[in-house]
What does this fold into?
Amino acid sequence: MKTTKMGGFSSKVGAIAAVAGSAIGLGNIWRFPYITGNNGGATFLFIYLICIALVGFPVMIAAFIIGRKTKKNTVGAFKELAPKKPWFLCGWVGMFSAVVTLGFYSVVAGWSLKYIYLSIMNSFQTGVDFETMFVSFSSSGYDAVSWQLLFMALTAGVVIMGVKDGIEKMSKILMPILVILLVVLAGNAITLSGASEGLTFLFNPDLSAVSGKAILIALGHAFFTLSLGMGTMITYGSYIRDEDSLTKTAVQVIIADTAVALLAGVVIFPAAFTYSVEVTSGAGFVFMALPAIFSEMFAGQFLSILFFFLLAIAALTSSISMLEVPVAFLEQELKIKRKWSVIGISLLSGVVGVLCSLSNGAVDLTLFGKSLMDGAAYLTASILLPSVGLLTIIFMGYFIKKDVIKQQLKIKNELFFSIFMFVAKVVAPVATFIVLCFSVLGVI
Ligand code: TRP
It folds into this structure.
């Protein structure tokens, strides 16, 4: 049996913890609430959940199969399964997305670090204007860039230490604490005066409000939050032991990921309505609403330090998984030393991140008519991730032998297998394709 140089996950729990660590991150706690707020609330949530089930789940399985079957990095995996065919280009596009995403991701993760510092300084006091606080910091240039680079350095440091040591230990202990803290905050949120308005906004859909743009963003976010379309789950799939169940790992991770996003929503929306933070505030939404909660809450300072610390850790376990994609490639295919691969890619993403951070108000940098930061997120989450995800599932559905899929999934029930293959071969690709066409044509 071939193994990766770094070895695989040492246990089933280790695999789930690391895959969940990748999936659960800023996507759940920062991005989900703000795009839900921007796109009308409950209706958006409803579409998002459908995208997760019908597209996210089969694409995750496809990525796991490709990774575990070959035990290779994303480019190497496609090359082995389809020699001399251009499928490996999916790996390249995925790596490009990883470098860009890591750039803007580290900007937001840097904000979380700054908010740990602000919590320690006891800056979240009643009466402070948290919107101004956020905007002046995020558009500050130098200050925001320093925190972003600090985060990038942390990510690089952890990846240099290797898969098992760095990733497994941290996510196993700290992610459950984050979930408990979110439950406590959700308990507090439902006692707030804006609770019923907030929960109605989040959970009571108005199906007549479905828009094409909302569908595209929901689909893109399904890929983003589950770490799909970059090769992360192919790379991680290659570390999952042969005896572990891919289906169970996917189901457990998806449930955990969705639960964290929903919990974050239950915490944020009641607060937004209570403390008059606009739900359409955009990328700063969570960073404006959360300090307001902590400023009023019992043990608020302690809880806010803990919260932003855990948020930064959740971001770290995700950023590690992004960095791991190009690093595994450089290490395995080009035989470049792990340390140098990490340093090279981190520098590249670091530059992207600095430019994204500056585009938030310090310097005028745009892409697709948006700030570079928003443009980069649009390019990756709404175009590149769904495109590579689409190709991944088509590849599994039409180019990998049925027996291999069956053997990887250990499925004995024929009916279940047929349903899965129908979703994987028809439902998920057609839905993704239609949404992508509309978005690329600029119709929505
Ligand atoms: N899923 C992570 C989050 O929700 C972000 C992430 C990590 C990611 N690795 C990825 C997104 C790969 C897309 C592809 O925060």
